[in-house]
Design a protein that fits this description.
The chain is an alpha+beta fold. The chain folds into two domains: about 35 residues, no CATH class; about 35 residues, no CATH class. It is about 25% helix and about 20% strand. The protein contains two helices and three strands, in the order βββαα. Strand 1 and strand 2 form a beta hairpin. It starts with a strand and ends with a helix.
Length: about 80
C-alpha cells in the first residue's frame, strides 16, 4: 500500500495517507472526502558515515573496491 500526499481544499490541510486502491481518502481534520492528490518530491538516499562504512565493508568482503576512491584503492592494493 503506497503512501500518498493529499490536500483538502475545505480546510486547507496537507496530509499523508496509507491507502489501498479501493479506499476513498478522507481528510483527518474535517472528514471531507473531496481531496486533491499532490505530487511529492522523492527523498534522495542517505549518505551517512555508517551507510558508507557498511557499503565499503560489504564491497571488500565481496572482493571488489567499487565504493572506494582511486586514492583509497592505491592504499589498499599491494
Amino acid at each position: 500500500m503506497p503512501i500518498y500526499e493529499y490536500h483538502c481544499p475545505a480546510c486547507d490541510k496537507r496530509f499523508e495517507l496509507l491507502v489501498r486502491s479501493s479506499t476513498v481518502p478522507a481528510c483527518p481534520q474535517c472528514g471531507s472526502t473531496v481531496v486533491d492528490k499532490c505530487v511529492s518530491a522523492p527523498q534522495p538516499p542517505g549518505k551517512s558515515a555508517g551507510i558508507i562504512k557498511r557499503a565499503r565493508a560489504r564491497a571488500a568482503a565481496e572482493g571488489h573496491f567499487s565504493n572506494f576512491s582511486q586514492g583509497e584503492r592505491n592504499k589498499l592494493l599491494p
